[in-house]
């Protein structure tokens, strides 16, 4: 068994079961986790002290057996070395005066950035030729990271963080980040967030504009390492005798106090289930992420060991144990199904029967995201998106040119029973829409484009395919809604609210909830904006949300319960009124008398307003009249009476369209029916003299 005699400076995974480590005793050692064996790969010359190393990235979307074949190693003698997996030094390059403190490949493996004690940031080609010197600082640069698109580089300068694009004369972003020297940075490609760690004993989370999202309490010792998990949901923090696992919003799940000395470097395995740390006392520490938690209605699922889950039904306290052949990588529990992906297979359990899962083999590499809808679920791996039914049958695999599946997350993909929506990374103003059953682009193949960058998208889950709506939040924090079906005519995008930070659709009916500034808001019938925008404010439910502190996030909206994760990690449950859901139910099965009876029983403005909008949307004018009368909209009651007394079907139809503000469509209906006089009349009433 080979061990390190001196401090370990850096570690890196080749596969999920194999790790390399470098130490000040000049050895590079390979660790095999399956057999717990270690072997010395190479003994470096005595004048080379390794400081940092990084495996050459695997090419995206090839079979999962390919492993990294070579790595870059930076050392204290001002050189970096390109070394093969077997330990042969392919090339050594003089790079900096003084030690080379960090070296990082970009995501495509087309460029390498190195930083050194001389304060220089240099970009090199794949073969180690100097391309450019990006910047020069007066202070040593301790850490560097590539931006998600490999077009920007983040580096440290004393207490400052600097983001510099590779293009000359592009804007450089610089801000003071810590009160002590910054020792480590990391930038995640999925969530676009930045981690920094400093000698002021704090770690911080930033967005890519340099806004502070989380600031930790001071620890006892300087933070020596930080690292994002590949999917951007978790990160790890290392310090003296300290290893910490945190959520992407900053709060800590677990704090361990292993006997390690300082942890100088943390590496996540490719599937994001375990980490390795390079320790100051010559050890390498391994840690597994366990105890993840999933909840749905009355079921609680916990990952107790790497290959074991425990399912608890809180109604009768029945406990089931689920055993898996390989280690669990991702799981999702929703719509009465638990979907679990391991390193080789996918398991689908029904909550009615935990004993007989459906199992199928996975095509490609590690699953990074599982999304569920009522009828089917979606798997995302490094190269593609796959849709499966709950019987384990493959349905479709949507594609568009330039799609990067490795950076999709729950905010940028949405799934409903008939539609898949994906927000593209190349142009963040665009949403691609696909038919779920075929994987082909929806309708006439046009995508949905918005005037601003889109941050988060969500499809509604119920109702007819033709009425499918998509809600999204853009960069200005406006919540917008639009129809998914696009037949030639430009669907309008309508703003529902401003300053919305997070949102979710209900799983059983089309009710939308969101957190707006300091209010929690429920849009009981978002479709109102297409029917009668004036009464939208009357269809909302609002309550104060200041108790959730800042940056809360809506986790789920199941039945009439909304689950919110506060910034400190605690969960809060809010119950909303069950009646609007029952109203949706009645209306979708056209039980108008029951709906009116329900509103009379509840005696609430919001219910009557929703019913009024639903009735007009479904062209039921009798109910609409009752509902509008109940909310005191007398002018609309009169107009509806006028519509009911119209002689022909076409003119009724046209006036209902007019009522909803669709003037052109109303005109077209009348002209098609040959009612030219009425078409002229409505334009005169609207003072459209040109027509």
TrEMBL record:
Keywords: Cell projection, Cilium, Cytoplasm, Cytoskeleton, Repeat, WD repeat
Residue stretches of each WD repeat: 93-125, 175-207
SUPFAM superfamilies noted in UniProt: WD40 repeat-like
Ranges where the IFT80/172/WDR35 TPR domain occurs: 607-691
Compartment(s) of residence: Cytoplasm, Cytoskeleton, Cilium axoneme; Cytoplasm, Cytoskeleton, Cilium basal body
Annotated GO CC locations: axoneme; centrosome; intraciliary transport particle B
Residue intervals of the IFT80 second beta-propeller domain: 291-579
Pfam name, any one: WD40
InterPro entries, per database record: Beta-prop_IFT80_2nd, TPR_IFT80_172_dom, WD40/YVTN_repeat-like_dom_sf, WD40_repeat_dom_sf, WD40_rpt
PROSITE patterns registered for this protein in UniProt: WD_REPEATS_2, WD_REPEATS_REGION
GO biological process: cilium assembly
Chief localisation class: cytoplasm
Domain of life: Eukaryota
Assembly with partners or alone: Component of the IFT complex B, at least composed of IFT20, IFT22, IFT25, IFT27, IFT46, IFT52, TRAF3IP1/IFT54, IFT57, IFT74, IFT80, IFT81, and IFT88. Interacts with IFT88. Interacts with IFT57 and IFT70B.
Role of this protein: Component of the intraflagellar transport (IFT) complex B, which is essential for the development and maintenance of motile and sensory cilia.
Protein name: Intraflagellar transport protein 80 homolog
């Amino acid at each position: 068994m080979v061990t390190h005699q001196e401090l370990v400076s850096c570690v890196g995974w080749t596969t999920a079961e194999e790790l390399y480590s470098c130490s000040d005793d000049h050895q590079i050692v390979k660790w095999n986790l399956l057999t717990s064996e270690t072997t010395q790969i190479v003994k470096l010359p005595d004048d080379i002290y390794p400081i940092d190393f990084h495996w050459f990235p695997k090419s995206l979307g090839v079979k999962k057996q390919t492993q990294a074949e070579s790595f870059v190693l930076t050392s204290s003698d001002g050189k970096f070395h390109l070394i093969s997996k077997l330990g042969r030094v392919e090339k050594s390059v003089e790079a900096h005066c003084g030690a080379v403190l960090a070296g990082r490949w970009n995501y495509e493996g087309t460029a390498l950035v190195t930083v050194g004690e001389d304060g220089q940031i240099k970009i090199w080609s794949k073969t180690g030729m100097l391309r450019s010197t990006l910047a020069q600082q007066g202070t040593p640069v301790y850490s560097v990271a590539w931006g998600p698109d490999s077009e920007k580089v983040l580096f440290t300068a004393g207490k400052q963080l600097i983001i510099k694009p590779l293009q000359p004369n592009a804007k450089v972003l610089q801000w003071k980040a810590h009160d002590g020297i910054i020792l480590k940075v990391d930038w995640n490609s999925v969530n676009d967030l930045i981690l920094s760690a400093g000698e002021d004993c704090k770690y911080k989370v930033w967005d890519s504009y340099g806004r502070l999202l989380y600031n930790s309490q001071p620890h006892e010792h300087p933070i020596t390492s930080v690292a994002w998990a590949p999917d951007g949901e978790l990160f790890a923090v290392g310090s003296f005798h300290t290893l910490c696992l945190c959520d992407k919003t900053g709060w800590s799940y677990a704090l361990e106090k292993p006997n390690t000395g300082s942890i100088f470097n943390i590496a996540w395995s490719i599937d994001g289930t375990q980490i390795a740390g390079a320790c100051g006392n010559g050890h390498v520490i391994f840690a597994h992420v366990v105890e993840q938690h999933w909840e749905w209605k009355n079921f609680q699922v916990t990952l107790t060991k790497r290959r074991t889950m425990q399912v608890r039904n809180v109604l009768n306290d029945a406990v089931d144990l689920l055993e898996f052949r390989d280690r669990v990588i991702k799981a999702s529990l929703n719509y009465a199904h638990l979907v679990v992906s391991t390193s080789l297979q996918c398991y689908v359990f029904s909550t009615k029967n935990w004993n007989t899962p459906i199992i199928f083999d996975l095509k490609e590499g590690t699953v990074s995201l599982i999304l569920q809808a009522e009828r089917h679920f979606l798997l995302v791996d490094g190269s593609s998106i796959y849709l499966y039914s709950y019987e384990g049958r493959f349905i479709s695999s949507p594609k568009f040119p330039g799609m990067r599946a490795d950076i999709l997350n729950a905010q940028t993909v949405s799934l409903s029973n008939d539609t898949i929506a994906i927000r593209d990374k190349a142009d963040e103003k665009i949403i691609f829409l696909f038919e779920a059953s075929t994987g082909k682009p929806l309708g006439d193949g046009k995508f949905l484009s918005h005037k601003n960058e889109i941050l988060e998208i969500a499809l509604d889950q119920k109702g007819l395919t033709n009425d499918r709506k998509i809600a999204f939040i853009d960069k200005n924090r406006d919540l917008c809604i639009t129809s998914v079906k696009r037949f030639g005519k430009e669907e309008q995008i309508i703003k529902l609210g401003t300053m919305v930070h997070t949102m979710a659709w209900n799983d059983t009916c089309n009710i939308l909830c969101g957190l707006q500034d300091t209010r929690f808001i429920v849009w009981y019938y978002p479709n109102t904006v297409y029917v009668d925008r004036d009464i939208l404010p009357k269809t909302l439910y609002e309550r104060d949300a200041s108790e959730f502190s800042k940056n809360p996030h809506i986790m789920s909206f199941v039945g009439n319960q909304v689950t919110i994760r506060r910034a400190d990690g605690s969960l809060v449950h809010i119950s909303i009124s069950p009646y609007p859901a029952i109203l949706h139910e009645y209306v979708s099965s056209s039980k108008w008398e029951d709906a009116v009876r329900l509103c009379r029983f509840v005696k609430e403005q919001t219910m009557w307003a929703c019913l009024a909008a639903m009735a007009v949307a479904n062209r039921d004018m009798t109910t609409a009249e009752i509902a509008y009368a109940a909310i005191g909209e007398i002018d609309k009651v009169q107009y509806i009476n006028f519509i009911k007394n119209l002689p022909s079907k076409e003119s009724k139809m046209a006036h209902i369209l007019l009522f909803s503000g669709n003037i052109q469509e109303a005109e077209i209906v009348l002209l098609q029916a040959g009612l030219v006089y009425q078409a002229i009349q409505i334009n005169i009433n609207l003072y459209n003299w040109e027509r």
